[in-house]
Amino acid sequence: MTRKFEGADQESLDLLKRMKESGIESSFDRYDAQQPQCGYGTIGLCCRHCQMGPCNVDPFGKGPQKGVCGADANTIAARHFVRYVAAGTAAHSDHGRSVAELLIATARGEAPGYKITDTTKLFEVAKVFDVSTKDRKIEEIAEEVGEMALAEFGKAYGTQRFTSRAPINRQKLWEKLNITPRAIDREVTESMHRTGMGTDQDYKNLIMQACRTAMADGWGGAMIATELQDILFGTPKPTRGSTNLGVIKEDEINILVHGHEPQMSEMVAVASSDPELLKEAEAAGAKGISIAGICCTANEMLMRHGVPMAGHMKMQEMAIATGAVEVIAVDIQCVMQGDEELSRNYHTKLITTSPKAKIIGAEHIEINDENAYEKGKEIVRMAIKNYPNRDKTKVYIPKGKKSAAVVGFTHETIKYMLGGKFRASYRPLNDNIMNGRIRGVAGVVGCTSAISWPDQLPYMDLVNALVANNILVVQTGCAAAECAREGMMIPEFMEKAGDGLREVCEAVGIPPVLHVGSCVDNSRILISCSEMVKEGGLGNDISELPVAGVCLDWMHEKALAIGQYFVSSGVFTIFGSKSPAAGAPELDKFLSEGLEDIVGGKWAFEPDVDKVVKLVIDNIEKKRDALGINEKKERKLYDMEDRRALSID
Amino acid sequence: MSRIIATAAIRGAHSIVKQAEEKLREAIESKGKDTKVEYPDTGYYLPIIYSATAFEVKTLGDCEEALGHARALLPPIPEEKTYLPYLGWALDAGMATLFAEEVIEACKYLIGPNPVGGIWLGAATDVILRERGIEFVDGTAPGFAAVVGAAPTNEIAVQIARELQEKNLYIFISGNTDGKSFAEQLDEEGVQLGWETRLVPFGKNITSTIYSLGFANKAALSFGGIKPADFTRNLIYNKNRIFAFVMALGEVDDEKYANAAGAINYGFPTIADTDIPAILPTGVCTYEHVVPLITHDKIVEKCIEVRGLKVAAAKVDIPVSYGPAFEGERIRKDDMQIEIGGPGTPAFEYVVMRDNSEIEDGKVEVVGPDMDEMEQGPGKSLGIYVEVSGRKMQSEFEPIFERRTHHFLGEAQGFFHMGQRDIIRHRMSKDAYNKGFRILHIGKIIHAKYHEEYGALLDKVQVTLYTNKEDVEKKLDEVKAAFHERDERALGMTDASVNQFYSCTLCQSFAPSHVCIISPERSGLCGAVSWLDGKAGYEITPTGPNQPIEKGKIIDEKLGLWEGANDFLYQASNKEFEQVSMYSMVTNPMTSCGCFECISAMLPMTNGIMTVDRDFTGMTPCGMKFSTLAGTVGGGIQTPGFVGHSKFYMSSSKFISGDGGLARQVWMPKQLKDEIGDAISEAAEEAGLEDFLNKIADETIAQTEEEVLEYMQKVNHPALAMEPMF
Predict the structure, then answer these.
(1) CATH number belonging to domain A408-627
(2) What is the pLDDT of residue B425?
């Protein structure tokens, strides 16, 4: 395949071109080498779950239509789908589990370097968990909250406690459908069991298990990760930060932190301002120590501390290829093994830090709750020592752009920014959706990957079109990072918004594209949706809200888990690929139509960005029509009787 | 463009907080930290700070802490570019502004310049709050306009003020534009200012805007049953109940923006006549937040639309303005065209029920000359003879209708109404005369207003206005006979003589478990609803707040316990209360809303009770001022040992008769004693108590419970010999 080195993301293209010229391989090269990829696997028709297989079903109807055991296309593709969801759920949830363990260790004083930062959040979670806060020490409360959170993974009875935050009607529906998630590990285990040979062979039944499992992620593991991280590291508030490769400094020691959990990156960041280490850095001839993030670690660090974001998942290689990175420290998820070989082309040291995620050839410095700060310092010191090895002839930091971004729009800060300390609420958001200034809200989230050559920026195109159509956009994960890089997360970007949305942005002082966090922080969007329902005027369930979710360049199983929990929570969710069940027409139809009648949300798979825009708008207008808010209404003037009828609570 | 507003408001807030710190430093330097600081006659301390934080500012030292709250709320000033969200900040800056301004104004009371002086009234006392605040609750006043700045000309100022008055709004005036205030403009044009005319000049400095918002806060605390520190609810109460707005006239500077931001927290939008940025999206306020560039002939209408207010202005076809705001207007001798009644001049107003066939609706006739043929001056005879009919009309309602004439006529601009029955004394102004107002219009007003308010009872209203002295005298014989008959009938009406009591649950909008039970011998605690009013109220709106209560079986005659009353209470209080004693303040007393004219409280040491009315602002022997007592007793609860009631009830033979009756009365304010002394003496005599009024102590005799006891012993008060109250 011939690639053009000109296009939307010129900086990435310049770096890829340099790599190409130096004979250095990238994930894009490997992606090209993989073409054509397995046709059966792409559309969900390859079954490898038992040793009678692998079995394929011929999508054109000529070859076999069943596997050896008799499983048909629907069963095979549904099993595949459920396992994707289970793996994604496992990923977020295992992340959540480490945070719960860290909270307990911190509360017990066994995690030096960490502290309980946000007691407001602690009390809020304690309330959801029925943990008493009266006359108790913060540490005691935190320990019990941590224990309770940990129990959510393996408890023998009961359902996920955070589901009580959903609108009442939603909870009742889940109960009726028997898909309120039970213990997280149980749902993952059961999914693995049911998708093995000879168990669940009814695709609808399998998909309902995918619903329950995914919700053990969104309303379980991921939410635990988000909320407990807020308790430990602080709930993000609107913060100014900078993004893009330009944040890598030519004259400073550069440490990239990459992965997902803030545990490691927080400590590296703290260590980097250690006066002793700063002196060492100076002695090594550097002007300072610069930390920058990649992938969701970047999102976490950016929104809590304004630590610059070098880039999203597919830019990890480009960041290394600047030749100016002394150390790239990684923990879990979305770290490419190719980074190891790549870093050997430069002086860069790849350091793995999690016992769950090692890479052959990388240096392993294991970070745990007890030693985190010391190990953080060790990593920084290693970077200082490595600085003299930087080969200046290989250094190329694109100077074109360094994009500013305003980030940190959590559920809590949205409430505050809409009403201040005393009138904090979602009322202004709901009101302006109801009066049509804002048509609706779209969550644009998820991965970036080698699937898209950087001559196109699909998220940018999508978000541009949505805001122009007066749709407020909330973003997480690498999708957020892409738009931040393109300068779409500064308030001035409101000029690109439709008139109504711009007016609201102007009134509040926000960009029309809100950065909500990392990929576990999609749970924040669930809470925001629930709050919109509770605020009133937009129906009684999330499925009535004029909202939609989109992920374009999805690659990780986590994305499918996220999509599935949004669908199960009542949200129309569009993924920008061909359907992973395209080979099983009945299952495909069930995902994109049948599910809506059951859970209120449904899937669409659509690779064409323009069509995605239309799907979002059409869905939002459909929901608006159903709510009756598209009808032109006279301004209501209130007499005494009307006023008495207004609630003051 | 609202970044400009937010930036200006935040800048303004920083400046005002700094001013407050300086003013406070000055006050502390000259008076010392321990010096008491307060607004006159209030139990709500500095009301905004108290509402928001429950912090009771009592000394200058406390002010420092209050300013600490303000400082903590102050946000940074938004950057020019890549700014952080500023709406929440601007709202917080607004609150910081209000906290700081309360401190500034409080210091002014101590070290000057005195907020009260000339036309300026300063803080509203709790007496005014109770008197006027209730109008916001019952809907008489739909809200208030906080007018800040000044109009371009005095003429425009008057025009705007009149238009606001016609909408029944209160007009709270503060601040100035280039040294000129809206209130001064009105004053220069001879417009009467004051609470009576609803044109309230708080102060010339922008910081006096807090008196408007403080009033709103106090209304929520006292009528909304909202607790201090439950500030979000207080603000939402204001958003959804008190329909106020800010009218900004003239240039809006940083400090005015800061105040506007404070007001937006309450849901009060700003409408300006100048070209300032707009904030149109809705959410914190009901509709828009800031609307600029409205011309003066449209500004009142626009304010009302932006606030989302429906004003039911009376449609009375007369050549002068009409509305409650004009009721308080005085007419001085020099401004008077004619005076009706007065010593030696026969005059009356009278309402009588007729058969439907006897009268003609809308017929208004002046028998004798109208004003064109009268000389200017006093001594004019007038008989206002009103005949009404209707299928649901009852002759019992005649006095109710007649009494309402006072309000209905008084609300015409340039008409001053005084007295009732055959002792009336009305004045009409030259101004009204020049605008074309004549005696005929008295009939027009009565016809229109009776239909508007009592349409459910009345079919026809006919008014004859006699202006010849001889005619009036002739009619007076008939009228006086009717008054006499009515009095006889009223005397005969007792709790025992009726089968039904009436409820009044009007105040449940703010005190959800409150149920007034009104009997012939115990009127509603607000003093405004008698048993007959309740009956008429039920006839007018059968599903309304006045419902008949079948007394049912008597359970305890002494305490006044009836099965029917209990059942009604249980349901109507949302199952909060099960029993009500009509005649006891000790055992299951009636609930109290917040509108009571008086509160009675036991003084255990004396074996008696004290009563304080809401006009008395001093300390009472029970150790609490009226406002503190009101906070304890009000809110729709039963508080054994305390009860809210009307003044009228004190002279009833059923006044706490279950607890020993009037003989328990040991203390009341002197002014109340003067006001209703005759009625009390009469009731005492009937109860066999001799020289009783003089045995009741007042604040000039006793200020503490011990002193009351001492006085009782001196005068041998009968309560001393009574059995214990409990």
Answers:
(1) 3.40.50.2030
(2) 87
The shortest C-alpha distance from A644 to chain B (Å) reads 6
Give A493-504 pLDDT, tens digit per residue: 999 999 999 999
Indicate whether B234 pLDDT > 60: yes
| Span A285-297, average pLDDT | 96
Which residues does chain A have within 8 Å of residue B312's beta carbon, measured at their own beta carbons?
639
Mean pLDDT of B311-317: 75
CB contact under 8 A, A406 and B84: yes
CATH number reported for the structural domain that contains residue B403 in this entry: 3.30.1650.10
Identify the domain boundary among B272, B307, B342.
B307
Comparing CB atoms, the residue among B233, B280, B509 nearest residue A649 is B233
Q: State the total domains in chain B.
A: 3
CA distance B197 to B213: 19
**Which architecture does CATH list for A73-233?**
Up-down Bundle (1.20)
Q: Supply the range of the domain harboring residue B703.
A: 497-721
Q: How far apart (Å, rounded) are the C-alpha atoms in residues B82 and B85?
A: 10
pLDDT tens-digit readout, A224-269: 999 999 999 999 999 999 999 999 999 999 999 999 999 999 999 9
The per-residue pLDDT for range A536-570, each reduced to its tens digit, is: 999 999 999 999 999 999 999 999 999 999 999 99
Distance CA A350, CA A319 (A): 12
- Tell whether B163 and B193 lie within a shared domain: yes
CATH number of A245-394: 3.40.50.2030
Task: Parse chain A into domains and list their residue ranges.
Answer: 73-233, 245-394, 408-627
Same structural domain, B137 and B186: yes
Name all contacts of A11-18 with Cβ < 8 Å and 24+ positions apart.
A11/A244, A11/A245, A11/A318, A11/A398, A11/A400, A11/A401, A12/A315, A12/A318, A12/A454, A13/A454, A13/A455, A14/A396, A14/A398, A15/A245, A15/A318, A15/A321, A15/A322, A15/A396, A15/A398, A16/A318, A16/A454, A18/A321, A18/A396
Question: Does a structural domain hold residue B486?
Answer: no
- The answer, yes or no, to whether residue B512 has pLDDT greater than 90, is no
Alpha-helical (H) ranges within B277-397 are 299-307
Helix count (H) and strand count (E) of chain B? 21, 24
Give the pLDDT score at B132.
86
- Identify the pLDDT of residue B47: 96
B284 contact residues in A (CB cutoff 8 A): 418-419, 423, 427-428
